[in-house]
Write a structure and sequence with these properties.
heterodimer; A: two-stranded antiparallel sheet; disordered C terminus; B: alpha+beta; five-stranded antiparallel sheet
Chain lengths: 144, 181
């Protein structure tokens, strides 16, 4: 794992497990050049130094389903990325449970534009559910 | 400068196009916000969309490109309806200054490369605006940060990539757009 020694990472989260990230319809929009929906790299940005995700093995341990991650977020999509793929990009995964999300975690490490685009490509291959365009999405204009 | 928008406000409060056979010009005004000194220096050129008020930018394109820029304005105007936490992960509201800056940038892009397709336009968690082009294995991004700095990133089909800040002149933008060829 490149530069992994300096990136916070929880070794009890195995490489072959998944993390989930919610995708708002704002990040899955029609590309005017092709007329096809496409995921943006902007969906994989840090806030406060890390990118929020849901730790898949903890979802399973709690006997929940992946779609429970978006149960309270109507219209949101959900993508999965393997922890091994994240580590190969020099990123690390740690648990950071919150009151609202017991399986919450953070992906640490430097997310350059290139890294975010690699995350986008990985996520495009593993949709759990795609977002639905609703009245709050600015995508309506592009779709019309 | 910090601008605060309430839910439901539009980011762009008014605009009026004036057209002539050779030019379409619109004064675009944001609901709130100011255009910083940094913004006024960016993309100095014959196309320069000079701010005429602190919260206004003048966009000049050819009449043919007017409809394309109008579509972009409509898309970005809708970002004003996004409340804080619109991504469910704590995203900030989209900043009016970033929207105006993205429009200025896009007007220059359209004037510089008239064959460039319309971009996909998305808000960023930090409150900025990202323009993306993706065709034939070529991927290009221009991200306008809330600070009004512009990040450039491109990937070519052969795997070559480049990322960095867009410098404060049109020549650097031209070099970037030439990557489309």
């Amino acid at each position: 794992m490149p530069d992994g020694s300096e990136v916070p990472d929880d070794p009890t989260i195995p490489d072959d497990s998944l993390v989930y990230r919610r995708i708002t319809a704002e990040w899955y929009k029609v590309d005017p050049a092709t007329g096809q929906h496409r995921l943006t790299s902007a969906a994989f940005s840090d806030l406060d130094g890390a990118m929020s995700i849901t730790v898949g093995i903890d979802v399973e341990a709690g006997e929940h389903e992946p779609l429970d991650v978006v149960a309270n977020h109507p219209g949101y999509g959900l993508v999965a990325i393997s922890v091994g793929d994240l580590r190969r990009l020099g990123l690390g995964v740690v648990r950071s449970a919150t009151d609202g999300e017991l399986c919450h975690g953070d992906v640490h490490g430097n997310k350059t534009k290139g890294t975010k685009n690699k995350l986008r490509a990985l996520a495009e291959q593993n949709w759990i559910r795609k977002p639905t365009v609703n009245e709050t999405s600015s995508d309506e204009i592009a779709d019309s | 400068m910090t601008a605060v928008l309430q839910h439901g406000q539009t980011l762009i409060s008014e605009r009026e196009w004036v057209t002539s056979p050779h030019e379409a010009s619109a004064a675009v005004t944001s609901t709130r916000g100011t255009t910083s000194e940094v913004a006024e220096k960016i993309f100095g050129s014959s196309f320069t969309p000079t701010p005429t008020r602190s919260d206004q930018v003048v966009l000049r394109v050819t009449p043919v490109l007017q409809a394309r820029l109008e579509r972009a304005i409509e898309t970005m105007q809708r970002f004003g309806g996004l409340q804080s936490d619109w991504d469910s992960y704590g995203a900030g509201i989209v900043q009016p200054d970033a929207v105006l800056q993205a429009l200025r940038l896009l007007a220059v892009v359209f004037n510089t490369r008239k064959d460039i397709p319309d971009p996909m336009i998305v808000p960023t968690s930090e409150g900025g605006v990202q323009l993306e082009w993706d065709r034939d294995g070529l991927h290009l991004e221009l991200e306008v940060r809330p600070s009004l700095e512009v990040d450039v990133y491109w990937e070519r089909p052969d795997g070559e990539t480049w990322g960095g800040l867009l410098q404060n002149n049109q020549e650097s933008l031209l070099r970037f757009l030439q990557r489309l060829d």
